[in-house]
Amino acid sequence: MRVLVQKYGGTSVAGAERIRAVAERVAASRADDHAIVVVVSAMGKTTDELIALARSVTPDPEPRELDLLLSTGETVSATLLAMALRARGCPAVSLTAGQAGIRTNAWFTRARITAIHPERLERELQAGKVAIVTGFQGITDEADVTTLGRGGSDTTAVALACALRAERCEIYTDVDGVYTADPRVVPEARSIPRIAYEEMLELAQQGAKVMHPRAVELGQVYNMPILVLSSFVPGAGTLIAAGGPVEIRRRVQGIAHDTDVAKISLAGVPDRPGIAHAIFAPLAEAGVSVDVIVQTASFEGVTDLSFTVARGDLQRAVALVQPVAETIHASKLASASDLAKVSIVGTGIQSAPGYAARMFGILSDAGINIDMITTSDIRITCVVPRDEVQRAVKALHAGFELDKQ
Amino acid sequence: MRVLVQKYGGTSVAGAERIRAVAERVAASRADDHAIVVVVSAMGKTTDELIALARSVTPDPEPRELDLLLSTGETVSATLLAMALRARGCPAVSLTAGQAGIRTNAWFTRARITAIHPERLERELQAGKVAIVTGFQGITDEADVTTLGRGGSDTTAVALACALRAERCEIYTDVDGVYTADPRVVPEARSIPRIAYEEMLELAQQGAKVMHPRAVELGQVYNMPILVLSSFVPGAGTLIAAGGPVEIRRRVQGIAHDTDVAKISLAGVPDRPGIAHAIFAPLAEAGVSVDVIVQTASFEGVTDLSFTVARGDLQRAVALVQPVAETIHASKLASASDLAKVSIVGTGIQSAPGYAARMFGILSDAGINIDMITTSDIRITCVVPRDEVQRAVKALHAGFELDKQ
């Protein structure tokens, strides 16, 4: 049985007409001799509306109850799609996360998939039916409904594809693939035909919204090809798969940017063991994610240390770091929230000479000041002033000739 | 553990404010040293809206999918009520029908409860939590979600009360009890303090909307006291329980009426075995419920036969009966849809002399023609012209002195 998993996002199923359009596409894929599993998100803004409804009852809804409440959103879209398929003569059945055997831990609102028991799912596929599974959710061993948090439906789709040893996992969204840069910023940006998991991961982590890193990571672990396509316009999309052909490696694949960046700087930090832990442990305990960390070389036993957090976390982070700064006798604590990150991503660019220099040169030529620099194996990231990030993205896109195939 | 089951209908949970009011009432009942199970319906018009949504996708939604879709309505209200209770410091947990162990057969849209496995429910109650169960639904042995059809949430409540050996089952609704007649028709109608199961059953079957006969029947089988109360105004309500005190028996308890009545009459039907079966079997197979059946005495080997059906079923019923009428050589087939039923209900009234004569006299004095008559042990029903039924109800309510305690 050749299995194909297709995931349709909220905009793809917003309204009866779009649901019928999805049904048409699914039916066509099935005619192509595949067993089809469809993963759906909640229709349009349903999840936001349900959250608002919960908040109208209490400002701080209980996570377990919130998850069960939110899970109704995908149940609605799954059943409607099943009806639409059956109405056009295509056998179909909707399955809740429980029915599809998606087990998670009990971390409500941000559960992790622990196992998939696909017996029912396989039975329905064997019976010739399209199985429509509610995305974004699972059940605990106690049969409580959980939601997977951000990127949940993509994760459901990739996890099911892995469990069913699918041929590939198709992610239908409102853009026709992964772009060399955000096309709203760079009109010349083009869809990337093929990208390696690790490159996609870096792009996603650095701000590309099209796929959540979590789903990409899962795909990488199981080596499951993921094809990102538009629900609305035809096109080949972007294939996320194991390291692409050699000729497209060692080049910049895409530019990511993220405007949700705030910075905290500590000056005059004593350079001795345990200091970093003293600063970052309270942040970790409070659930504040720290992104870029930069520490300058030690000079006369003291060093400067800067790190970035999401803008929404800045106030909390400052409050947590303030007492530590006093305890360790840092000379100064400063913060800024008018920053952004821009990254170039491509396998091998970090080990190959010249990419970093070229990036800094392009930004310098554009008159853009670099505040912080950080790198990974396949990425170079610069923190720049927020009001200059769009210019930075455009300059890098042109400078690395990403508008050319 | 003294268990109380409370059921709140759709109007009682329509909106955040009403949900908080229900939470207040539930919390008060719990303070009264009871373990509380709450059964909720979907908020306001949610079920109708979901049906409309399904119909926007396909005119004829698949029953299994429709049931899973509709089940989301009660899940929403159950989780919101749990949040509201927790927000006021009252431990609470919502349970889907599956989590609450409500098993049904696989008759989608009209499933029957086959068993209740209350282990989880009992565990939550033992832990001191209010358990909020989604009404109107169950799961099959295959873990498919079903809905129970009309009267479903009342049935869920009474069934859970029986399974948990609750002290009683409280049904909160938008009226403050079972009335001697529809108060919209008879302003003097009053709430009946106590009524026997069989009387309530007859009232419900004959058109009183406050409780569905199915739930009453279940209460009767397990001898579970059911208290019908208003969510909105305080009051003692109506207790539905085993045969009331002797002094209130052998009197008319209430007047029911139903305007959803159509009649089919067959004249000149040969009076021989098998004829009734020939007429009613096709109706039963087609799922058309036949209500009142009246056959006149045979005269010269032919008889007249009339029966009533719901108005919405009339066309279908005529189409089914027409060929049978020809086969059996009935001389005439007629139908009418401008009828209504009015019934007096009270234990012992049928075996006691005078009630029937008094009923016919009251209607005659009011100048209302009686089209058909039918009786049960505790009920006398007359079919009358629809445009006279309100006058009939008023005349009977006054004639049997139901406005007096």
Report on this structure.
Two copies of one chain form a homodimer. Chain A is of the alpha/beta class. Chain A has helices at 16-31, 46-57, 63-87, 119-126, 152-163, 197-205, 213-222, 275-285, 314-327, 355-365, 389-399, and strands spanning 3-8, 35-40, 92-95, 102-104, 113-116, 130-134, 137-139, 145-147, 168-173, 194-196, 226-230, 238-241, 254-270, 290-295, 302-309, 332-345, 372-376, 379-385. Chain A has a domain at 3-174: Acetylglutamate kinase-like (Carbamate kinase, 3-Layer(aba) Sandwich). Chain A is built from eleven helices and 18 strands. In chain A, the strands form four sheets. Chain A has an eight-stranded mixed sheet with strand order 3-6-2-1-9-11-12-10, sandwiched between helices. In chain A, strands 14-15-13-16-18-17 form a six-stranded antiparallel sheet. The first copy, chain A, starts with a strand and ends in a 6-residue tail after the last helix. The model of chain A has no long low-confidence stretch (mean pLDDT 91). The A-B interface holds A 16, 19-20, 50, 53-54, 56-58, 60-62, 64-66, 68-69, 71-72, 75-76, 78-80, 82-84, 86-87, 93-94, 96, 98-99, 120, 142-145 and B 16, 19-20, 50, 53-54, 56-58, 60-62, 64-66, 68-69, 71-72, 75-76, 78-80, 82-84, 86-87, 93-94, 96, 98-99, 120, 142-145.
